[in-house]
Write a structure and sequence with these properties.
heterodimer; A: Rossmann fold; Rossmann fold; five-stranded mixed β-sheet; B: Alpha-Beta Plaits; two-stranded antiparallel ribbon; 10 helices; about 15% strand
């Protein structure tokens, strides 16, 4: 084992390398490209015996990934943002094939307007695809989650593709100390892929997921995927126990920090949750009983774990780095559905939307979120959803609007009312 | 925790500098987080990078609001509001500016009370070594990094580059490291995060606004013409009239930026204000009539009296 500073992207590449991925269909997109570059470099120098193929789009990339997985080889790929959306049709198709593979998504906000920086709308768009999802908060977790994802995806009780998500910039381009395990250790955790019945061969053609009309067979196959996804919760529990036994690092479906005696709890996913953790430390120093709950596993949704962790809390502040226009934050909605009617469900679920398009969430904002949520618990009134957006930011936007207005006048473009 | 920000321009090795400093601190037993942050991925654009180092695991992330040390490798950035060089400087921060001017002058100009130090560029030294010089300075000012670990971090980071490049960078970094001896260790670790020291955010309620201003349309037309993408070029295609057979369509059609027009005599005309220097035209010209010249040579030739 060596411990060194590597980026989240390099950690993802190490995950694929240590998992001995056989086939890597690829298409470059910022901020994911470093993963493919790193793997390509290893393959070129004979350090990784894999086959990499550059496809002409993410749609083809995902088709190739699913087709290769259907032959029984271990497949890895990575994408981001618009790329994930371009692959969306095939995400659903490949999951329906029950082809196990691991796709790393480097989260980046979606157009329009276009951005290169991180938020979770891309990965949230894929939440109903049948891909299982693990969300990472550190570079170490990216490497470990990639290994864990293969074990779950390939388990005969599951046989579904799995996505590992890391935040663009905040993890993808950020170096942190990462323990890179030895290949032998990884082999004992993740043996070579035993494809079982998955063995498509060109010489013995079969049809993968033919048309089924009438609704009955369709309902059966879709619901089987759902049940397999649910079954992945138990498989995840076993796999992470195994992981902890071998590597000493523990990855429960949800991370809880200072939660046991907490009255107010932050709930969020991804790398910004470590900022929440730092804020919890500062709030604890100031005498505030605040905790943090971070789902790692988002599909299957860890409803039971969340009900248990949040039972008896006075209030939860859900911080969504995504936005469903016309509805609000997705995590907030899903948590409300999981808690409704359960014993000890917190009476107040406050919704905060922030960190969109790489926008930072400051420590001061975490403190304010805790304050607003505590007040809501004291008064028993759930506050209106809050966008984390400050006066100084609005002033910047007003400046841009003034320039745009001026430029429109110069070019004679029509106003769209 | 040490919180350090580097500011510079794309191409000056700011990302590399932050990684070298991070690696050196890691070698000294610190838990480290380092990251670059940039918008446009191109030379000359303002970028910054940050390094956090602590004896305990680092959970803070993202932009450093209260830096202990700020290193600026391009003095012209100080006046660029978007570069936000001065953000969060306080009395106990240290500001290092790559500049031939005196530190006192900068202190007056900027009206700051923190310690200001300057990093004068070496004689005839271009931007290429500023990253190395600034990381040497930062390492000495932090005072926790040995020369050996600094050198080791540079060699590891630059591995694979020609050996003369590596030696030049090591030499420049160590020279800078030594030159700040009298300020060794003047950067101190910042306080842990506390609620008491935080200013509550001034959140605003957004109202629904007419789409004439709330849809992200900047201009109706002519945007690509107004952006001088020719500035991005490092090499330029030049047409050799004696070889061009005026086929008139191959280079002009295949130019991905529509930067080659065709004149009345079917001669191709390159629009250097917008040609990005991809050199695709050079590759496709059947009569090899397009040659490549480095931009710098063109500039020098032009400035010849």
């Amino acid at each position: 084992m060596s411990r060194r500073l590597i980026t989240g992207n390099a950690a993802a590449a190490w995950g694929a390398r240590l998992a001995r991925a056989d086939y890597i269909p690829a298409f470059p997109i910022t901020p994911q490209t470093e993963i493919i570059e790193t793997l390509g470099n290893w393959i070129d120098h004979g350090e990784m015996p894999a086959r990499m193929v550059m496809l002409e789009s993410e749609h083809s990339m995902m088709t190739a990934a699913g087709a290769a997985a259907a032959t029984g080889v271990r497949v890895f790929s990575a994408t981001s943002s618009q790329g994930l959306l371009h692959a969306m049709e095939m995400l659903y198709a490949v999951a329906g094939w029950r082809a196990p593979l691991v796709l790393v998504n480097v989260s980046r906000g979606l157009a329009s307007p276009i951005t290169l920086e991180s938020d979770h709308n891309d990965v949230m768009a894929a939440r109903d695809s049948g891909f299982l999802q693990l969300h990472c908060a550190s570079c170490q977790e990216v490497l470990d989650a990639t290994l864990i994802a293969y074990r779950i995806a390939e388990d005969p009780r599951v046989r579904l593709p799995m996505m590992v998500n890391l935040d663009g910039f905040y993890l993808s381009f950020t170096r942190e100390p990462v323990s890179i395990p030895e290949l032998d250790e990884v082999r004992s955790f993740l043996p070579d892929f035993d494809p079982g019945s998955i063995r498509f061969r060109a010489g013995r053609p079969i049809s993968q997921a033919v048309a089924v009309l009438g609704g009955g067979p369709y309902s059966y196959f879709r619901y089987e995927s759902h049940l397999a996804a649910n079954a992945a919760a138990d498989v995840h529990r076993e796999v992470v126990m195994d992981f902890e036994r071998i590597f000493g690092r523990r990855y429960d479906a949800i991370e809880t920090y200072q939660c046991e005696d907490a009255e107010i709890v932050f709930l969020m996913i991804g790398s910004f949750s470590t900022k929440a953790r730092a804020a919890v430390d500062a709030l604890r120093d100031a005498g505030e009983p605040v905790g943090l709950v971070r789902p790692r596993l988002l599909r299957p949704y860890p409803a039971e774990d969340l009900r248990r962790a949040l039972a008896g809390k006075r209030a939860v502040a859900v911080i969504d780095q995504n936005l469903s226009p016309g509805h609000g934050g997705t995590l907030h909605c899903e948590l409300a559905a999981a808690l409704y009617g359960s014993d000890g469900a917190p009476p107040v679920l406050a919704s905060f939307v922030g960190g969109l398009g790489g926008r930072d969430i400051t420590a001061a904002e975490f403190f304010e979120i805790a304050k607003v949520t505590k007040k809501a618990a004291d008064e028993g009134v759930t506050p209106e959803p809050r966008l984390l957006f400050q006066e100084s930011e609005l002033r910047e936007v007003r400046k841009l609007q003034a320039i745009a207005h001026h430029e429109r006048g110069l070019t004679g473009a029509e106003h769209v009312e | 925790m040490y919180r350090i920000r580097f500011h510079g321009r794309g191409g000056q090795g700011i990302k590399t500098a932050s990684r070298i400093l991070g690696s050196a601190l890691f070698a000294e037993g610190y838990e480290v987080q380092d990251a670059p942050r940039y918008g446009a991925e191109r030379r000359g654009a303002p970028i910054f990078a940050y390094v956090r180092a602590d004896r305990a695991p680092v959970y803070e992330r993202g932009i450093i609001d209260h830096p202990d040390l700020v290193v600026v490798t391009d003095e012209s950035l100080v006046q660029v509001p978007a570069a936000a060089v001065m953000t969060g400087l306080c009395d106990r921060s240290v500001l290092v500016i790559a500049s031939a001017a005196e530190p006192e002058l900068w202190q007056q100009r900027l009206g700051v009370t923190c310690r200001v130090l300057t990093l004068p560029p070496g004689p005839g030294e271009g931007a290429a070594l500023m990253g190395a010089a600034s990381v040497g300075a930062a390492a000495k000012l932090i005072g926790q990094i040995s020369a050996a670990n600094l050198e080791g971090a540079i060699r590891a980071e630059l591995e694979g580059l020609p050996s003369d490049v590596i030696e030049r960078n090591v030499g420049r970094a160590l020279e800078s490291f030594d030159s700040f001896e009298s300020h060794a260790g003047c950067v101190s670790e910042g306080e842990a995060l506390t609620r008491a020291s935080a200013t509550p955010p001034a959140w605003v309620e957004l109202e629904v606004e007419p789409t004439s201003i709330s849809a992200p349309a900047i201009r109706g037309e002519a945007t690509s013409e107004q952006v001088q993408t020719g500035l991005w070029r490092t090499m330029r295609p030049v047409i050799d009239d004696s070889l061009c057979n005026h086929c008139s369509w191959i280079c002009s059609t295949l130019c991905p930026d529509a930067a080659i027009d065709v004149g009345s005599d079917r001669e191709p005309i390159i629009d250097y204000e917008h040609c990005k220097g991809c050199l695709l035209c050079v590759a496709v010209c059947p009569s090899h009539a397009i040659v490549v010249e480095p931009e710098r040579a063109v500039d020098e030739h032009r400035s010849d009296p």
